[in-house]
Amino acid sequence: MVSSRFIITVIGVDKIGIVSGITGVMADFNVNIVDISQTIMEDMFTMIMLAEVKEANFNLASFQKTMSEKGDEFGVDVRVQHEDTFRFMHRI
After folding, report:
1. Distance between CA atoms of 73 and 15, rounded to whole angstroms?
2. Which pLDDT belongs to residue 56?
């Protein structure tokens, strides 16, 4: 079984339904939340998730596009990066 992990970040002005909208897309793509951190600082919504998919034929590009479109609906920035890419970009 193939397993891929992703870092998903969501940042923007808080609105009702952001978590539901984002996690709904994840459910549609059979993406599981491994770990999650979410906070609201004044009116700014921030969420970061470690997510995992266990499908060998997972279409990352399609998932990224759909997540970005859902973020646009709520006026938030949604980024999906493979865990290895995220770690490489944020190493010291």
Report:
1. 11
2. 82
Which pairs from 58-62 meet CB under 8 Å and 24+ separation?
Answer: 58/4, 58/29, 60/4, 60/6, 62/29
Give residue-wise pLDDT tens across range 68-85: 999 999 999 999 998 766
With tokens 């906070």, the residue in question is 39
> What average pLDDT does the structure give for the chain?
90
Which CATH number fits the domain that encloses residue 77? Answer: 3.30.70.260
Q: String of b and e for 6-38 (b: at least 16 CB within 10 Å)?
A: bbbbbebeeeeebeebbbebbeebebeeeeeee
Domain count, the chain: 1
Instruction: Report the Cα 54 to chain-centroid distance in Å.
Output: 16
